[in-house]
Amino acid sequence: MSTSDALRVAVAKWEGLGFPDHADGEDLEAWLMDLLQTDGYIAGIASTVLNGGHHHGRLDEQTSLSQRLAEISADTLHDQKVVAASREYLKALREVVAALNAYTGRHG
Fold it and tell me: Which end of the chain is less congested by CB atoms within 10 angstroms, N or C?
């Protein structure tokens, strides 16, 4: 699979998940707002690259978001579901970042 195909597959998987629901807890909700900001940034870069534009340099692999999510306690059943959905979403986002890094490493 070419790096552009791998990027398209990763983006399609990520977009198919949908953004996690709002949270009951303040810490988790604040984390989701940080994820939303990162999400928009990565989406913009992915869109640019997939439409023939360029991005130079490597993107952060979002380890700080993963670490922060692991430290948040989900006290309600709803927040536990949000955390589970967030982990899945963040995993897909990291796959997009890895695909972007692979693509820009070959084409940047």
Answer: N
